[in-house]
Structure formats: C-alpha cells, structure tokens
Write a structure and sequence with these properties.
The protein has 141 residues and is α+β, with helices and mostly antiparallel strands. It has two helices and seven strands; from the N terminus they run E-E-E-E-E-H-H-E-E.
Length: 141
C-alpha cells in the first residue's frame, strides 16, 4: 500500500449485484471511515494497522478491498464470488489448493472501551498469531 498512511472514507451498503447475501460493498449506504498506517512492508504484502472510526459490518474488509488491497486470505472480499459460492456448496476451500493462508489475516491486536459500571477505560491486547509469519513481532503498540 502506498503511501505510508491514509484515510478511507467510503459509505458501505449491500452488494447490489452480488448473489451472496452477506456481502457488502463500498460506494453507497451508511457513512464509514477507516484510518490506516503501514506497520511493515514485506515481499508481496504489507502489514497495515487499521483504526475504524465507525463500526460497520465487514468495514475493514470492504474498505481495503475497495482501494485494491484486500486482506490476505479473504475469500469473500479478495477472491471471485465463484470461489466463495463453491466453498458454501461444499466444493472445498480454494485457499487449500494454494500456497497461502488458510484464513483471512485480520486480527484485533488491541481494543479499548469504557468499563460498564466504573467508566474506567479497559484495555485488551492480543499478540499477532503465528500464521501471520512475523515471528518476534507483537503487533501491539
């Protein structure tokens, strides 16, 4: 991804021409905003930290696919619809036939939210899973 950081402000709504009822698309619908920053550049891919300002379903996946950088391994937003539909029909996961991740590589490294009673901010953190291929990189600021 170029440059090193940016903002994606694209509305998100139902994927009108899609045969997949859970799929969404950018360009119409509810306002949506995602800030992003490059964390690390690797051959053929980029580790990006995402900061959603809104909370739309599939927002990060839709926004990255809309700007031409789908999440690695995302069968719904990073592949032809026929791959997803074939998997739903039980024809197997097309990712298993390739040298790539067995799932989409999206991970919540940190989440903060107010406590339900005290109002004190809660901070939950999780290191990057091993299948991200970044040994020794925690991914947590």
């Amino acid at each position: 991804m170029q440059p090193d950081e940016g903002i994606i402000e694209l509305p998100i709504g139902e994927a009108r021409a899609s045969r997949i009822h859970v799929k969404l698309e950018a360009g119409h619908g509810k306002p949506s905003c995602t800030d992003w920053r490059v964390e690390r550049r690797l051959p053929g891919r980029t580790l990006v930290r995402l900061f959603p300002r809104t909370g739309r379903r599939h927002q990060l996946r839709v926004h990255l696919a809309a700007v031409g950088h789908p999440i690695l391994g995302d069968i719904l937003y990073g592949r032809p619809e026929s791959d997803y539909l074939g998997m739903v029909r039980g024809e197997g996961d097309p990712r298993a036939r390739e040298d790539g991740p067995a799932r989409h590589l999206l991970h919540c490294a940190r989440m903060t939210f107010p406590g339900p009673v005290s109002g004190r901010t809660r901070d939950v953190r999780a290191p990057l899973p091993a299948d991200f291929g970044l040994t020794g990189y925690s991914g947590i600021p």
